[in-house]
Each structure stands twice: as C-alpha cells, then as structure tokens.
Amino acid sequence: MIADPPPNPLGGRTLIVDANNGDSYPRPSAALLDAGEHDQVFVRPGIYEDKVFITGRPIHLVGADRDKVQIFSRRGGPLYLQQVPSGRISGITFRYVGSDQHSAMNLLDSTCVVTQCRATEGILSGVVIYGPQSRLTFVENEVCGNRESGIFVFAGAQPRIADNLCRGNHHFGIAVRDPGSHPELVRNQCRENMLSGILLFHHAEALLVDNICSENQHWGMVITPDCHPTPGLEALDASNILAPNPRGTLIVTDQPLGDIGR
Length: 262
Known about the structure:
- The chain is mainly β.
- It has one domain.
- It contains 2 helices and 27 strands.
- The strands form 3 sheets. Strands 1-2-5-8-11-14-17-20-23-26 form a 10-stranded parallel β-sheet. Strands 4-7-10-13-16-19-22-25-27 form a 9-stranded parallel β-sheet. It has an 8-stranded parallel β-sheet with strand order 3-6-9-12-15-18-21-24, with no helix packed on it.
- Strand 1 (14-17), helix 1 and strand 2 form a beta-alpha-beta unit.
- It is elongated, with a radius of gyration of 18 Å.
C-alpha cells in the first residue's frame, strides 16, 4: 500500500482525496475537476461512491492500493474515459453495483495506462476497450466476477493487454471482436471463467503470446474461422498454455456463443 502520495513525475500539484479528512477532497471526481494537465490525484484508503468521467484531457489518478481503495457507482459505470490522450490510473478497485447494462471500466479511444487496478461486478464485461483510436496500455490488473467477459476489445481497438488476471467471469476471460481490432495479448492469466479463457470472433486479430488459459469451464481458447491470430492457429498451443480445460485447448467454430444462445 502507498501510505503517502508519491512524487508527481509531471512536476505539478498532488491533490488528495480522503473522505475522512475535511481538508481533502471528498471524492476523486471532485479532485479531478480541479486538476490541471500536470497535476495528479492521490486517493487515500476508503470506499467512495463516485463516477470518474474524463474526456479529451489527460488523467493522473493514483490510489493507495486496489485492496484499500474502491470507487463504486450505482448509476452507470464508475470509470468512463473518452479520448484521453495520456496519463495513468493505478491502485483502485472499480465496482459497478447497479442493475443496468454497464461495465466497471469503459475506455473509448484512449491511450493512457491503467495498471494495478481491479474491475468487478460489471453487468456487461468488466472492462470494455473500444474505438479505432484506442491504444491503451492495460497491465497488471485483476478483472474478476463480471457478468459477461472480463475484458472485451472491439470496434477497432488496438490496446496492449499484458500480465492481467481475468478470473471467475461469467463468459470469457478476454474477448476480441470486429475487423480492425488487434490487441497485443501477452502473459495474461484467464482462469476459472464460466465459458472459456480467450475468444476471438467476427474478423478480429490479435497477438497471443505466453497467455495461460486454464481451469475454465469449456475451452482454453475459442476462435472463429474469419479471425487472424498471431502466431497462426497451428502454433497457438505452443505459444500459450491452454490446459487443463474440460473440453480441450482450442476450438475453431463459427458458433462461438452457441452455449449462451447467441
């Protein structure tokens, strides 16, 4: 846990969020509203009902520890980034506790870094990364207990997704869809998901190296015939760990969502 605010590498101010200190900001969104381009926001341990919505400007949001800092929302997802050109988010759990169709993290056409965070209880996927300008770096996060997939990449996004744990999601650990979508999927662990570890479908592409897809309910990896993984199909089993899973390591099928009636 980070007990004190880390130095601001940008040289600006550090704004403190602490619900128990009247001299600090009560919520992350309030501090971000006052933050300039070179300021960072540090969130002390606590549970904050809030919604972080940033569009068209950098974000520098640092939590003390994802096990100690939680941002939750009942109406809409707790994190929404749109066209965020740079910055970093770390050390926070984002939790959606509503009943509508929302994700814990909604990341559109952004190029910042999200690391050492947690996304949980999304009614849709835990994390959605989308848009042709999306070059996000999403590393060392935990994505667990979401009602659809853990991480869903679509609509032409090309993020780097590495060293994440995607566990116990209702569909897949990671899913990639659509022409132009081409994430780098490296060293992710997709375990104990209720369908399979990784899904590529509807003309998606992806780099798939050193991922572990094991102990899922169905397959290690599911791919539709119109997709283009790197390395090719014949080498995926050698470049990733796709066992043990009850149905096997890898299947190529034109009905990847047949088990859920889609």
